[in-house]
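Anyone have tokens for ATP-binding protein? Sequence:
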Amino acid sequence: MSTVELSFSALPVHVRTARLIVTAVARRSGVAESLLDEVRLAVGEACSRAVEAHRRHCPDEPVRLELSGAGRRFEVTVSDTVPGDDTAGGLPAAPDPDDYGFGEGTAELGLAVIAGLADDVEIAATPKGVQIRMSWPAEAEATI
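Reply: yep, here.
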């Protein structure tokens, strides 16, 4: 199992670059062509969410991604360093849209979009930051 790690400045322009890299690694990991748009959109949504949170709370800290092809799964973890609430059983309890610089309800909508696009999603909000882990099936063993 190989892991690709990527970190980028909290600038919206870098989200596009992250989507392109994730798509290339997903393809190489054996994710079906028919799923690549879902991978690209879900990762873009998670990265945009992290960028907005960083721009508001810690603009000098990078957003981090981990991409891995384990067995017959392709997994992406997007991590920010904006402290969350770890008392909600690992899920952010009704995030305050003002905390992330979004309009009312947009933060929850973004998480719903991610959940609808990824095959499996886990969101962990802790005092160290928020991690969104997404995964999709891969047709073949990873070659990353």
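Residues 59 and 90 are 24 Å apart (CA to CA).
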